Write a sequence for this structure.
């Protein structure tokens, strides 16, 4: 199946330009699955430590009204995260979208940083500690939303449950790209699954420091491709049977 990862501008005008380029890329490549960055349809708001309900609600509305944009990518399946209000909580909710059933809410982000530029625990609540995979078409998908990728016990569990792909939508800074790539490679090795990631990128001296660089990593940790400002989209035809075979090889077969 053809998988696409990307980096998309944080600034609304740049994002709009990047989105049209992404649409053209997806149509040309005929992608089956597209991973978007974390909370892509609104400028990154967690750079500020001060929660603002008006900004939060604007972000929710922006994502709720993004379906016309997603339809431009059909028939590809789209995954990412969006802000959501649910049961009295503010959540960073993983979703899958397709043209025949619309948005499907999956799980909400559980591990929330709270530091300079990434005051996430100040803006939204923890989801439940439920890392159940989801069946998507003919493959099994697991979400590790940004910071969650560092908690490798969940990669291990995903591997034991037979996940083919771990999706990691991110909003991470330019200064730590190498470190995040280590996390992606490690998650792939621990799970025996393909690990894919897309990130936001800041380009206009914005308050947010976001560094781009999406990736596709194969189950044994080899980097198959990266995005960059010069090449913001990367598409690859991956063989899902490699993830199935990897479950029986080192270190995945070693008993707990």
């Amino acid at each position: 199946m053809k998988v696409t990862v990307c980096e998309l501008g944080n600034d609304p005008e740049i994002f709009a330009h990047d989105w049209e380029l992404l649409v053209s890329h997806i149509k040309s490549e005929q992608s089956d699955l597209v991973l978007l960055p974390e909370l892509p349809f609104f400028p990154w708001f967690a750079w500020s430590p001060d929660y603002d309900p008006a900004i939060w609600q604007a972000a929710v509305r922006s994502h709720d009204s993004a379906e016309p944009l997603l339809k431009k990518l059909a028939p590809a399946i789209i995954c990412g995260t969006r802000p959501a209000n649910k049961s009295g909580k503010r959540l960073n909710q993983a979703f899958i979208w397709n043209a025949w059933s619309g948005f499907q809410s999956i799980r909400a982000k559980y591990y929330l940083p709270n530091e300079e530029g990434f005051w996430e625990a100040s803006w939204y609540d923890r989801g439940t500690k439920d890392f159940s995979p989801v069946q998507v078409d003919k493959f099994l998908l697991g979400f590790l939303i940004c910071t969650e990728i560092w908690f490798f016990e969940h990669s291990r569990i995903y591997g034991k449950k037979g996940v083919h792909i771990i999706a990691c939508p991110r909003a991470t800074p330019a200064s730590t790209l190498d470190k995040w790539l280590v996390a992606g490679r490690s998650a792939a090795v621990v799970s025996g699954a393909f690990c894919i990631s897309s990130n936001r990128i800041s380009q206009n001296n914005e308050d947010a420091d976001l560094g781009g660089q999406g990736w596709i990593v194969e189950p044994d940790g080899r980097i198959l491709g990266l995005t960059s400002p010069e090449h913001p989209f990367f598409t690859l035809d991956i063989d899902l049977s490699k993830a199935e075979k990897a479950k029986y090889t080192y270190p995945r077969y070693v008993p707990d």
User: Anything to note?
Assistant: The mean pLDDT is 97. Residues 52 and 123 are 8 Å apart (CA to CA).
